[in-house]
Amino acid sequence: MTTEGIEAVFLETHNWGRTAGFLRALGFEMEFDTGHNSGQFRNGEGRPYVFVAEIPGTEQPRTQLMLKVADPEQVHLDGDVDVVSGFEETHYGTREMTVRDPDGRLWALQAPGKR
């Protein structure tokens, strides 16, 4: 199995409005606003999207890359990959798996949800 490239970048922020404005100034267009201080942006058709979610000021904002996987049933990882959690359904309609790289960073693999 190989991934199909970067699907998305997830950003956490302390200020949804300012971050949304920043992305718009860089040429991103909002695809949708969830209505609760989060939303999805894209800069060009077929390119990875950026999903931004506001978190409390007491939490450290994180950034996470999501790698695209067409079929999670075809994912067979060798011993060089530390699987943190296998594919699980998300509340937003996808399946995600988390792996750790040799330097300890977490990576997410995202596949379509079950239909």
UniProtKB/TrEMBL annotation:
InterPro entries for this protein: Glyas_Bleomycin-R_OHBP_Dase (IPR029068)
SUPFAM superfamilies: Glyoxalase/Bleomycin resistance protein/Dihydroxybiphenyl dioxygenase (SSF54593)
Protein name as it appears in the record: VOC family protein
Source species: Nocardia aurea
